[in-house]
């Protein structure tokens, strides 16, 4: 399978330079926050949105494509940059902020920081902010499941 490179552009905003792609001509916009190893010029299943009449705004995360690593270095800063970028082409509402893998943090942050802008969030194999389960739950799980496995082993082998 060959992935075709799509045309992108850059914008210089207060938070830094960002590479993005705006495709489609629908009245509603979906913002795509890619995970690692992706950039705005590569589409990964976004055709479902353009085929249903949406515009797609895809951004390259800091350190990917032509977005420098120094641009908006936190999910909050990148969410603010994206909200500012949305206003440039006149986007007043985002139909969905889609967070793919590591882009999930930014999609959630954008919805939390800009609820007037984001209607919904779609997460695809998204990475969370906090490791789950927490340390106490992991330790309790090990204790319960290891004890259960040991008991089963004892009954099975007659030890």
TrEMBL record:
It comes from the Bacteria. Residues 29-126 form the AB hydrolase-1 domain. It holds the Pfam family Abhydrolase_1. This is AB hydrolase-1 domain-containing protein. It comes from Streptosporangium longisporum.
């Amino acid at each position: 399978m060959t992935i075709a490179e799509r045309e992108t552009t850059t914008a210089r905003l207060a938070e830094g330079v960002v590479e993005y792609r705006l495709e489609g001509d629908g009245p509603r916009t979906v913002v795509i926050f890619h995970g690692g190893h992706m950039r705005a010029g590569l589409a990964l299943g976004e055709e479902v949105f353009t085929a249903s009449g949406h515009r797609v705004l895809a951004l390259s995360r800091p350190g990917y494509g032509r977005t420098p690593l120094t641009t908006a270095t936190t999910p909050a800063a990148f969410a603010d940059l994206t909200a500012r970028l949305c206003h440039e082409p006149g986007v007043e509402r985002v139909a969905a902020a889609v967070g793919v893998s590591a882009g999930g943090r930014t999609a959630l942050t954008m919805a939390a920081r800009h609820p007037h802008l984001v209607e919904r969030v779609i997460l695809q194999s998204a990475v969370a902010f906090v490791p789950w389960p927490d340390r106490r739950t992991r330790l309790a799980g090990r204790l319960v499941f290891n004890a259960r496995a040991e008991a089963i082993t004892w009954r099975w082998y007659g030890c």
